């Protein structure tokens, strides 16, 4: 599993409307994380649990002294979890990315949903995008602070 966590003041994800239809709001969060989630082939329950625990406990929010010392739980923040298979892209050979390390769609969706449930099990409020949909993501990155985690 690969996570790209962005510390945000706010973030929102919409599903792009078809053929001129308006966009549909899927989820939003205030202070917290925008978590881009990529399932890889072979992710296990242990891997997914570790990813959720790390998300909940990573101390990258500022304390009263301005130091990164607090977790998203400590600051009462939430998580907007958005599936993003392109994090598995291998761009080192040629000009077209290879996604062979990514999980198959059925496996990836199950892993993504298990990650979301594991975050909720950590006591975090979680909103989501729509797996496999074309989405529009808007955010205000706080820092900027962005963290790439591979499990």
UniProtKB/TrEMBL annotation:
<keyword id="KW-0820">tRNA-binding</keyword>
<protein>
    <recommendedName>
        <fullName>D-aminoacyl-tRNA deacylase</fullName>
        <ecNumber>3.1.1.96</ecNumber>
        <ecNumber>3.1.1.-</ecNumber>
    </recommendedName>
</protein>
<comment type="similarity">
    <text>Belongs to the DTD family.</text>
</comment>
<feature type="short sequence motif" description="Gly-cisPro motif, important for rejection of L-amino acids">
    <location>
        <begin position="143"/>
        <end position="144"/>
    </location>
</feature>
<dbReference type="GO" id="GO:0005737">
    <property type="term" value="C:cytoplasm"/>
</dbReference>
<dbReference type="GO" id="GO:0000049">
    <property type="term" value="F:tRNA binding"/>
</dbReference>
<dbReference type="GO" id="GO:0043908">
    <property type="term" value="F:Ser(Gly)-tRNA(Ala) hydrolase activity"/>
</dbReference>
<keyword id="KW-0963">Cytoplasm</keyword>
<dbReference type="InterPro" id="IPR003732">
    <property type="entry name" value="Daa-tRNA_deacyls_DTD"/>
</dbReference>
<dbReference type="Pfam" id="PF02580">
    <property type="entry name" value="Tyr_Deacylase"/>
</dbReference>
<dbReference type="InterPro" id="IPR023509">
    <property type="entry name" value="DTD-like_sf"/>
</dbReference>
<dbReference type="GO" id="GO:0051500">
    <property type="term" value="F:D-tyrosyl-tRNA(Tyr) deacylase activity"/>
</dbReference>
<comment type="subunit">
    <text>Homodimer.</text>
</comment>
<dbReference type="GO" id="GO:0106026">
    <property type="term" value="F:Gly-tRNA(Ala) deacylase activity"/>
</dbReference>
<dbReference type="GO" id="GO:0019478">
    <property type="term" value="P:D-amino acid catabolic process"/>
</dbReference>
<keyword id="KW-0694">RNA-binding</keyword>
<keyword id="KW-0378">Hydrolase</keyword>
<comment type="function">
    <text>An aminoacyl-tRNA editing enzyme that deacylates mischarged D-aminoacyl-tRNAs. Also deacylates mischarged glycyl-tRNA(Ala), protecting cells against glycine mischarging by AlaRS. Acts via tRNA-based rather than protein-based catalysis; rejects L-amino acids rather than detecting D-amino acids in the active site. By recycling D-aminoacyl-tRNA to D-amino acids and free tRNA molecules, this enzyme counteracts the toxicity associated with the formation of D-aminoacyl-tRNA entities in vivo and helps enforce protein L-homochirality.</text>
</comment>
